[in-house]
Description:
Organism: Methylorubrum suomiense
Domain DUF447: 6-119, 126-177
Protein name: DUF447 family protein
Number of strands: 8
Structural class: alpha+beta
Radius of gyration: 17 Å
Strand order of the largest sheet: 1-2-3-8-7-4
Strand content: 25-35%
InterPro entries: DUF447_C, DUF447_N, Split_barrel_FMN-bd
Number of helices: 6
Amino acid sequence: MPLILETVVTTLSAEGAMHLVPFGLIRDGENFVLAPFRPSPTITNLAERPYFCASAPSDVRVIAGIVTGRRDWPVVDCDRIPGKRLADCFGHAEFEVASIAEDETRPRYRGRMVHAQSHVPFIGYNRAQAAVIEAAILSTRLHMLEPEKVLTEMAYHAIAIEKTAGPAEREAWDWIEDKVAAALGRSERVLKDVGRPA
């Protein structure tokens, strides 16, 4: 299986409008592959400007926020490509599209890295941050999964939230729980009680 890095990808339209979305970048040798499903503003933007930037957010609320409709996060200009990156991130990498494998469902854009930079010291891993990322991905697949599977997985990831989350991770988790609860037609309280100590 290929290595996949969970990032936040930004692209620009020809008019300069930014689209920001969490994406798993697929490592392929020295390159990284971006594979969005159609339809996607990312695909439209890459047709107009064949560049993208991947940021590693230092705050998981960015990922949780984007998948729950909160898209207003600070960005700054990229260094080498016409694009934007997250202002608050551990680091970022800038890519130009080297080749495209067209597909009716999921084209694959092979990106050649032209610049990468670290911005914030990385001291250690946090289980709650990983749990938020997993829950965020889960929340984008609610149309594909059975409700009980969703609740079971949320309950499992909630253990890490209870044990290791700080305020930012708890807020991010609450956003995702609210989204899942609404999608499954459950009350917020019922969902929040799943997997949690009394």
